[in-house]
């Protein structure tokens, strides 16, 4: 098998080989190349020790030198070059207490998580596959290298990575590996929130976000996202729905593009439903106020998983407004753009569409036609540059002060009132009309 290695990867491998060392591309880049996918990055493994690697390349960074990793810089690109190693005992379900360097490539591959990630390649030897990675790629399986319980006991994050790779590649998890996942899932509590967050996002933005259901069935969400478990089996006895809350969420996740903000919004949008569900005398379920409860849950979970403030702000706002419906009129759409935010409005439309498509056929066409009409009005409002924000108002705080208003709360309230006045009718957004409005209000 021939893999076309990038020029700079070849340069690194050739330089190491010229000086008497073994060197190979290794791991995910080899797997992705075989699958005809474009690797995100290229990792290199070598028999050279870190200090020897550093002597052979002009620009290097000690990224993880105690574990044998040196980053080699070539132009604007960087490549991790790691010495063959054997991991010592793992004490925290994540990191080895020590590593020992070795000259044996197979020993290095043996410590890796899954067979499909334990292959190495160079142009001289070609593919090195000591643990059946190629066979598992052909059979579409996620299987641990060696004994699954050992691999997951060494690093509990591998438990979540198994489901993430399953979602990215659409490969089922091999039964013995799945059994070990189920048994050791509780050890995920030892993993940092940041690591959990990174894997969860990769799972959600994968081609198969619905595999989060596998994470539930294997006991993973019980540890990292118990809020998901609370949705499972919660029926929605209403003409608008045909799935329980969790199943509806799975369909909604698949209905939006692979965008972090959109997928997180769909994950959280109905999480408040179990807490607010009521059933009337006709056996019909109601979920009044679920959007606000879902917003609070989303904020709590995202804070727990250490998401950045910008992501928290955008996702919680979209969750809050995901059920916000309006008659498609220019005034209504302008007001919604003002409330939700011009930047987030296309996301809001995508969220509403995904939600509607994941519901029952009842009034679905009507809902979708409404969303399309709102989208068309939104686009017209942008094209016409109609005033939606304070920044677009024809007057500023300085103009109001020139009319005699003092800085402070009253001035801020007047600006907000003027914005509402203009949102009702964009033709009013002239300095003359707005100043006359203020003079009349202030009896000037």
UniProtKB/TrEMBL annotation:
| Enzyme kind, highest EC tier | transferase
- All copies of the CCA-adding enzyme C-terminal domain together span 294-437
Report the EC number(s), separated by commas if there are several: 2.7.7.72
| Poly A polymerase head domain mapped to chain residues | 23-143
Per its UniProt record, what PANTHER family does this chain match?
CCA TRNA NUCLEOTIDYLTRANSFERASE 1, MITOCHONDRIAL
Which InterPro entries does this chain map to? Answer: Bact_CCA-adding_enz_type3_sf, CCA-adding_enz_C, HD/PDEase_dom, HDIG_dom, NT_sf, PolA_pol_head_dom, PolyA_RNA-bd
Per the record, the similarity remark reads: Belongs to the tRNA nucleotidyltransferase/poly(A) polymerase family.
User: Which named protein is this?
Assistant: CCA tRNA nucleotidyltransferase
Enumerate the cofactors the protein uses. Answer: Mg(2+)
Q: What is the scientific name of the source organism? A: Candidatus Mediterraneibacter faecipullorum
User: Mind listing the GO molecular function terms for this protein?
Assistant: CCA tRNA nucleotidyltransferase activity; metal ion binding; nucleotide binding; tRNA binding
Listed A to Z, the keywords are:
Magnesium, Metal-binding, Nucleotide-binding, Nucleotidyltransferase, RNA-binding, Transferase, tRNA processing
Q: Where do the tRNA nucleotidyltransferase/poly(A) polymerase RNA and SrmB- binding domain residues begin and end?
A: 170-230
Q: What GO terms describe the biological role, i.e. biological process, of this protein?
A: tRNA processing
